[in-house]
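Quick note —
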Amino acid sequence: MISQLFFKSFNYPALSLIFVFVYTICCSTTFLAICNKKKSLKIKKQKIVKSASNSKKKQKTTYYVDGARAIGMLRECEKRCEVTIEKARHNYVRVMDKAYEDARREIAEFKKKREEQHQKYVIRLQKEELDYAAILENKNRAKLREIDKMVTKNRDNVIDDIMKVVLKIQPIMHHNVPDLRKAKQIKSSSTQLISKQPSQTFSEKNQQRAKILPIVRKITYKEPSISSESSTSSSTSSSISSELSIREQNKSRQKSQKENNRKKQNNISKRKNN
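Predicted structure written out below.
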């Protein structure tokens, strides 16, 4: 029982000190008991003393103790106490070292767990940032698609307006080009004739110019013929049909490209989420 308590006291330093103190008290009591027994064995004689008051006999004992032996026993007890104290000190140091090692191990495990939690938190933050970036990218792409649709719609409307204006202006331009060429030729020939006649006076030159100008004006403002109108209308219709076919082809290509881009973006976002 005492040995079990002694070994259990290693985990509690204060208990070990209490145990040493109790052990020293027990040793001292045993030592005193032994001394008393020795004294009782070394009784030399008994004296009988008669009192004056009564006739009863009283026994008085005297004890003789060996001082050198008692000092030796005390020294042995001191040595034993020192040995037990030294053992208790060694046990206390060993227990403290063990407790220090356990505390250091627990601190290392706690640091390791904290680092793992920090790494998990960092990974979660990075994943959330990537998800947020992907969401923003998808939103921006959706906005860009809407802007592209609006731009293409406005561009198509502008192109339609320009084509309408061109179709309105085109027949007039086709009819006026040859008339302008003729007017330029007549004007140049008339200026050459005027320059070749140096003998003419200034008034004669003005008269000739007055005769030529109405002719030029008539040619420039000449109305287009029916055949030219039919040819220009056929050419404009063919050009319009070709333009419309080209525009339809471009629209179909743009739609296919947008669908392909959307599929690629969806695949990329799925890979990031995985």
